Amino acid sequence: MARVSVSVPVRWSDLNAYGHVNNAALLTVLEEARISAFWAGLGSQHPTAVLESGPGASQHTVIASQRIEYRREIPHLREPLEVSLWIGRMGGASLEVHYEVLPPSAGDAADAGERLPYAVAATTLVLVDAATGAPTRIPPAVREVWQRYTDEPVAFRG
Amino acid sequence: MARVSVSVPVRWSDLNAYGHVNNAALLTVLEEARISAFWAGLGSQHPTAVLESGPGASQHTVIASQRIEYRREIPHLREPLEVSLWIGRMGGASLEVHYEVLPPSAGDAADAGERLPYAVAATTLVLVDAATGAPTRIPPAVREVWQRYTDEPVAFRG
Amino acid sequence: MARVSVSVPVRWSDLNAYGHVNNAALLTVLEEARISAFWAGLGSQHPTAVLESGPGASQHTVIASQRIEYRREIPHLREPLEVSLWIGRMGGASLEVHYEVLPPSAGDAADAGERLPYAVAATTLVLVDAATGAPTRIPPAVREVWQRYTDEPVAFRG
Amino acid sequence: MARVSVSVPVRWSDLNAYGHVNNAALLTVLEEARISAFWAGLGSQHPTAVLESGPGASQHTVIASQRIEYRREIPHLREPLEVSLWIGRMGGASLEVHYEVLPPSAGDAADAGERLPYAVAATTLVLVDAATGAPTRIPPAVREVWQRYTDEPVAFRG
């Protein structure tokens, strides 16, 4: 039901020679949003330790695939991008994080009607056993928490 | 019919804290392969100036979308990755570059049977008018050249 | 007299395979601090348009040299780094931005006595004519503003 | 007596919005040259395992400081940069790697007289005990090898 919203500053070094955020750099922006959401958004209130896991944890997630649709070029911005993200699909051992990358939310001009996304994207994460690398089922307690952050899959055009 | 093969060195800074090539950094590797192919591979023999175009050219390409499937983690490698790329689909104003990211080709051990891809990917490029940003049709002379570099679309699992 | 303090989030992709912020990535952190300071710190109150200048402006700055001393490894941090920066030297056509990279300021544990810098650094910027690339003198009005942000040069050990 | 020469390709993502190689990205280029030299240059002929060491080794090097002087802007180049590097100073537990970043060596136009460096730089590395992090003396056998790669310190202007 709930989406998480994370602010991610664009860096000067994210720009390409055309003055727009580079295509690969935007994946780094999604990564920052994803890590921040699991830490600060979901993590602060809920037992999502599985996704905060470092090298020593018994389970961690690996990225299986990504898909991104670039809708408008992103210029250098003084204010951070807003990344809205949620769980668009959940399987037995995997989940899809879906994203909308939005203009900075600050300022009067940015009313809802004008805030078309710069990009939409999805990342498929697989939960694996840290020792063997084999996929493992999402534990029920974690699934229950994540269920609260599910929403409709993002609509790709392509 | 023909695929182009490009060597792209992995950088130490492409590695994440787990010692593997970062998910977004691999998109940068694809970008290097794509630019190099259009310059050195296709570009050296054929009139592909449209894709080599800088800010002053009348047409250039923009990235509309990307999809990538990570199959195995990539460690730090002394030898460059080999990226095999080709045109997997061509539309009226767009083309899809498809890729296989392969282990370094040097050495006896790397016979064909063992060279499973680290990742497969596709990038959709749209040809646009530099002044207006509007999609423009691929000119027949360019289409004819690109036709020689088409092959079957890469097989995604997901 | 005054130093400017800027928060810069560390990104996951700034980490190297040892789990510490990469040496070159820290220069990107300094760059973010520098741009942010000239925009948001000095720029919001003062006529520093010269340093905010884009490709069309008549003067801009180029980086002539940099020096950085790494004192402690920087781990992945949930809270942003604090970069304290000021003008450590000003010449006729150049200025030196000096920096201390500090741990996040939030939290009780971070009292002044414990906040030893992770790194100290200096960047020499030269003011150049945008058309010719030749160094040009800092205009008096700009010099007057910048004077307020000068302080003692940072103390390098090496 | 001997300098090592390493080819490092510039990436499209190394360029900033002005179309030149970003100041921090050039440190990444130096890093690639340094790692490659210790691996492929010195490493292939000599017992320099100490510098090739991964997390499990008993000694490794940490970067204590860096200094770089940017002399000319570096555009996007089809051919790799040539980085010439050598040991400019050696202490009891530390060494300084010095560098000249040169235009691509290929082609008739690039005769010696015209190949002014884009940048010169120095990196101070300290040899430390992997377990304690304390500086440790360079072993005599390693010192003897490294001695062969020493040369005059690079001449900074600033």
Structural class of chain A: alpha+beta
* Largest interface, Cβ cutoff 8 Å: C-D, 23 and 23 residues
C-alpha termini separation of chain A: 25 Å
CATH topology of chain A: Thiol Ester Dehydrase, Chain A
Rg of chain A to the nearest angstrom?
16 Å
Instruction: Tell me the overall shape of chain A.
Output: globular
Give the count of helical stretches of chain A. Answer: 2
Beta percentage of chain A is 25-35%
Oligomer: homotetramer
CATH class of chain A: Alpha Beta
Describe the protein's architecture and organization.
The structure is a homotetramer of 158-residue chains. Chain A is an alpha+beta fold and 158 residues long. Chain A has one domain: Thiol Ester Dehydrase, Chain A, CATH 3.10.129.10. Helix content of chain A is 17%, strand content 30%. Chain A has helices at 23-41, 140-147; strands at 4-8, 59-70, 81-90, 94-102, 119-129. A five-stranded antiparallel β-sheet of chain A has the order 1-3-4-5-2, with helices on one face. Chain A is globular and about 45 Å long. Chain A starts with a strand and ends in an 11-residue tail after the last helix. The relative contact order of chain A is 0.23. The model of chain A is unreliable at 43-55 (pLDDT under 50). Chains in contact: A-B, A-C, A-D, B-C, B-D, C-D. The interface between A and C is small, with 11 and 11 residues. Strand 2 (59-70) of chain A pairs antiparallel with strand 2 (59-70) of chain B, so a sheet runs across the interface.
